[in-house]
Amino acid sequence: MFDIGFPELLLISVVALVVIGPEKLPETVRTVALWIGRLKRSLSNIRLELENEIGADEIRQQLHNENIMKELSDTKSELEDIIQNADDSISDAKNSLKSIPSQLATPSADEKIEDTLEPVGVAESGIENPTELDAVETPIDDQSNDAAPKLSGSST
User: Fold this and answer.
1) Among 155, 116, 152, 115, which Cα is nearest to 137's?
2) For the chain, what percentages of helix, strand and coil (3-state, to nearest 5) are there?
3) Is the dihedral of CA 114, 120, 124, 128 positive or negative?
4) Could you tell me the sign of the dihedral formed by the alpha carbons of 123, 125, 128, 134, in that order?
5) Which secondary-structure segment (H or E) carries 14?
6) CB 148 within 8 A of CB 142
7) Residue 137: closest CA among 148, 125, 127
8) Residue 138 contacts by C-beta under 8 Å, 6 or more apart in sequence?
9) Is residue 78 within a helix (H) or strand (E), and if so which, with residue range?
10) What is the pLDDT of residues 118-150, one digit of tens each?
11) What distance in Å separates the CA atoms of residue 135 and residue 118, rounded to the nearest whole number?
């Protein structure tokens, strides 16, 4: 507001000392200080009255509440997006789990290749029909003669 430095204050002090005199200077300084204090208090009271009249506190509070509500709505939308993404992930997982039984029912390319190949060892054994392997004798327990047949392919 006013640019008063040390030289200006020194000049005002010397002029006040010469004009007022050394006996009345302390009393004059006290009086001026009281007037400045009263002026500050009255300006502060006027400012408070004006703020109350126009509702500056209410406006500040309303702006603060609006900022809080905006932050809450932003957070709510973020949470809704996260929930939607989680629901999408869950539905994708459910769909992939539903497709697993159909994948198990249809043979894969490796299984189709294995079905077309002959079993290993059948060609070297000299057995033309792999079902002849069922006719091989199985060992019989002496204790259970009546329960087990001697040959799996023939009847006695």
Assistant:
1) 152
2) 70, 0, 30
3) negative
4) negative
5) helix 6-20
6) no
7) 148
8) 148, 152
9) helix 56-105
10) 555 555 555 555 555 555 555 555 554 454 555
11) 19
Structure-token pair, residue 27: 């009393």
> Which residues does 134 contact at the CB level (< 8 Å), separation at least 6?
152, 153
Give SS3 for 112. helix
User: Residue 149 and residue 141: Cα distance in Å, rounded?
Assistant: 10
Domain map (residue ranges) of the chain: 16-54, 55-91
* Rounded Cα–Cα distance for residues 41 and 64 (Å): 29
Give the torsion through C-alpha atoms of 81, 85, 91, 96, to 10 deg.
170
Query: Six-digit token pair at 94?
Result: 């459910």
Q: Looking at residue 35, what is its pLDDT?
A: 96
Convert the pLDDT of each residue in 41-82 to its tens digit: 999 999 988 888 887 778 888 889 999 999 999 999 999 999
From 7, 6, 12, 37, select the one nearest 25 (Cα to Cα).
12
